[in-house]
């Protein structure tokens, strides 16, 4: 899992001493996190500020003030050097002064000034690591807190509709809210980033450094490469595995897509189609258990539902999503008359497993520890220990087979230490963007709590939707798409759930876990939905296709992102459970609906579908989503009849 953005680019343009400093700070941060996760747990007012201090230092080292393309120069180093010192102060202030701050009634002036400094550092860090959009949103929320008769910017109150008006807050009050408690920057979002998320980011970095990524890709090729459209199906399977670990749809596209997209093009997929398939599959990695990016950890904190329970209920929806993408890929391959790859072009499953079976052990250990009830942070710690043990055991086994000597043993140990150091540094770098996004999200959470904005936004949502749950969900989709144009997935999910969550649960009666899952799924859509489809653009770059055309293809293949959350809302039993016959029935009709929808979308299943059949599938799919078992049964019967007709015509034509 890792971040919602790619790893820092153009790091090679940095002076070697800066790269060395980034590596040293990153290693120190990762060791601190491992120590806190597995050896000595820390209180939140120690863990979170220290984590933020490290992240800010890394951020200002990795991202120069003038951008990656220009050297810092003297003026740049004066600015960034000042920010680096300020970051150390901001990270150390609360832990060093915790007793004084905890025992005072009113904050000291120095505490307020450090709070202001911390807010400014977070906003500037987010601008560099996440993008200007996140910083602008943070500034807008701060301005909203000041807008009121008693606030610092009372004139802004006249510009807002009556429902959004509030009393307004002073600079001292807002700074205290942001940095002297657990309701601002050091709140739940950063707390999750500083504990669960970081440790699994580090786990993903160790998997990457030890070669697990290549193992999963090779395994997917070996399993599906001989089938029609094999590389596209391998992309779906590999992206399910890699995406769950990387936590970034874009990073997933550029890693697995570098292998899958050229092969898809070679076998006959159009460039835009190949890039779109990879983007859709990579986006699904964010919703694939056991890691699910940072979302599952945040969801667990917000809903107070155990992490392992969220993972378990997410398995079937994730399988539905990848099944839909896989089916669309298969239909496209059959329509275009594509074949698979030959055996000589593919690795064997036995050979891949023989070389990399030890990479499965950490994943087995991770799942087993989660089921056993260990905390996610402790599970992440032991998962990292297990992958180190597995990689070391494999290396020693190979060493013992190949005429071992003392010189080879020393070289082996040196290489192992280098890989560990690289993984520690990589994990820290990969965590910068998500931690900065979560820090700004803390500002948003603090303002929402201070001003009561969440309830006001919920009232506006109810007014716009007229109490209609379908219209309300469409508003959520539109809001998630707009937010996703400027925010990473995790940040978009946090902002959206803070604003619309109360309305979905309290006014529309959607259970809290389903509300969070729906918002989390919809937060992924900016990866594949034009005009801003970040994963689609990454796929287009590799495929050499037009970005907009590739994004349209990605949007088509990722339709499960929109349908499956609706199914969660109207058929709660697939998430919340219930009588076994009802759960099985809902699982069955969900599969039928997605198969019917895929066939109607492509106009093909076993053979081309006439336009009248495609048109009739649509009301059948709508009926399946209707909250009435009789209407559902009619919809299922209609779709099955149409699919049977298609199958019969195919058999008759042979």
Strand content: under 5%
Shape field: globular
The end-to-end distance, rounded to whole angstroms, is 47 Å
Number of strands: 0
Largest sheet: none
Low-pLDDT regions: 1-12
The percentage helix is over 70%
Mean pLDDT, all residues: 81
Helix/strand/pairing class, anyone?
Answer: mainly alpha
Radius of gyration, in Å, reads 26 Å
Query: What order do the helices and strands follow?
Result: HHHHHHHHHHHHHHHHHHHHHHHHHHHHH
The multimeric state of the shown protein is single chain
What's the helix count?
29
List the helices and strands and how they pair.
Elements: H1 16-39, H2 44-62, H3 73-96, H4 98-102, H5 109-129, H6 132-146, H7 171-179, H8 188-209, H9 212-224, H10 230-246, H11 249-267, H12 271-284, H13 295-303, H14 307-335, H15 349-356, H16 360-371, H17 376-401, H18 406-451, H19 453-465, H20 469-484, H21 489-507, H22 512-522, H23 534-543, H24 547-557, H25 560-570, H26 573-576, H27 580-602, H28 611-624, H29 629-653
Helix pairs in contact: 1-2, 1-8, 1-18, 2-3, 2-8, 2-18, 3-5, 5-6, 5-7, 5-18, 6-18, 8-13, 8-17, 8-18, 9-10, 9-15, 10-11, 10-12, 10-14, 11-12, 11-23, 12-14, 12-23, 12-24, 14-25, 14-27, 16-17, 17-18, 18-21, 19-20, 19-21, 20-21, 21-22, 22-25, 23-24, 27-28, 27-29, 28-29
């Amino acid at each position: 899992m890792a971040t919602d953005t790619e790893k820092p680019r153009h790091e090679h343009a940095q002076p070697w001493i800066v790269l060395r400093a980034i590596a040293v700070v990153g290693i120190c941060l990762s060791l601190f996190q491992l120590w806190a996760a597995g050896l000595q747990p820390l209180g939140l007012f120690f863990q979170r500020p220290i984590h933020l201090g490290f992240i800010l230092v890394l951020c200002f080292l990795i991202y120069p003030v003038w951008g990656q393309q220009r050297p810092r120069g003297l003026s740049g180093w004066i600015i960034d050097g000042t920010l680096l010192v300020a970051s150390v102060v901001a990270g150390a202030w609360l832990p060093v002064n915790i007793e004084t701050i905890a025992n005072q009634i009113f904050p000291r002036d120095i505490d307020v000034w450090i709070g202001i400094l911390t807010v400014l550092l977070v906003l500037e860090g987010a601008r560099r690591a996440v993008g200007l959009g996140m910083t602008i949103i943070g500034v807008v929320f701060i301005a909203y807190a000041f807008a009121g008769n008693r606030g610092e910017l009372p004139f802004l109150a006249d510009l807002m509709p009556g429902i959004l008006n509030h009393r307004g807050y002073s600079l001292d009050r807002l700074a205290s809210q942001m940095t002297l408690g657990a309701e601002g920057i050091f709140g739940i979002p950063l707390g999750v980033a500083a504990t669960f998320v970081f440790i699994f980011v580090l786990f993903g970095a160790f998997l990457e450094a030890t070669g697990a990524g290549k193992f999963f890709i090779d395994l997917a090729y070996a399993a599906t490469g001989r089938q029609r459209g094999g590389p596209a199906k391998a992309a779906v399977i590999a992206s399910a595995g890699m995406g769950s670990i990387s936590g970034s749809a874009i990073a997933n596209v550029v890693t697995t897509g570098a292998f899958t997209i050229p092969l898809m093009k070679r076998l006959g997929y159009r460039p835009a189609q190949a890039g779109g398939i990879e983007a859709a599959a990579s986006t699904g990695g964010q919703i694939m258990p056991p890691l699910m990016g940072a979302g599952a950890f945040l969801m667990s904190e917000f809903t107070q539902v155990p992490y392992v329970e969220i993972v378990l209920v997410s398995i079937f929806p994730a399988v539905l999503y990848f099944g839909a993408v896989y089916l669309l890929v298969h239909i496209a391959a059959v329509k275009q008359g594509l074949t698979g790859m030959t055996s000589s072009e593919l690795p064997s499953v036995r050979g891949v497993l023989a070389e990399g079976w030890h990479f499965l052990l950490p994943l087995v250990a991770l799942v087993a520890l989660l089921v056993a009830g260990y905390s996610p942070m402790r599970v992440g710690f032991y998962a990292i220990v297990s992958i180190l043990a597995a990689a070391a055991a494999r290396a020693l086994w190979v060493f013992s087979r190949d005429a071992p000597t003392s010189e080879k043993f020393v070289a082996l140990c040196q290489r192992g230490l280098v890989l560990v150091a690289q993984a520690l540094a990589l994990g820290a770098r990969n965590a910068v963007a998500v931690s900065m996004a979560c820090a700004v999200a803390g500002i948003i959470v603090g303002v929402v709590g201070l001003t009561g904005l969440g309830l006001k936004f919920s009232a506006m949502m109810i007014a716009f939707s007229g109490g209609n749950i379908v219209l309300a969900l469409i508003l959520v989709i539109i809001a998630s798409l707009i937010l996703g144009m400027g925010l990473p997935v995790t940040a978009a999910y946090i902002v959206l759930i803070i604003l619309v969550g109360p309305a979905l649960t309290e006014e529309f009666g959607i259970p809290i876990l389903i509300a969070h899952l729906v918002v989390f799924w919809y937060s992924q859509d900016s990866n594949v939905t034009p005009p801003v489809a970040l994963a689609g653009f990454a796929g287009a770059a590799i495929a050499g296709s037009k970005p907009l055309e590739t994004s349209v293809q990605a949007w088509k293949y990722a339709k499960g992102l929109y349908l499956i959350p609706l199914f969660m809302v109207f058929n709660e039993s697939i998430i919340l459970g219930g009588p076994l016959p009802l759960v099985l029935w809902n699982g069955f009709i969900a599969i039928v609906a997605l198969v019917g929808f895929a066939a109607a979308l492509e106009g093909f299943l076993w053979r081309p579908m006439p336009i009248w059949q495609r048109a009739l599938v649509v009301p059948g799919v709508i009926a399946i989503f209707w909250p009435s078992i009789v209407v559902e049964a009619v919809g299922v019967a209609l779709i099955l009849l149409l699919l049977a007709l298609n199958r019969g015509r195919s058999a008759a034509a042979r």
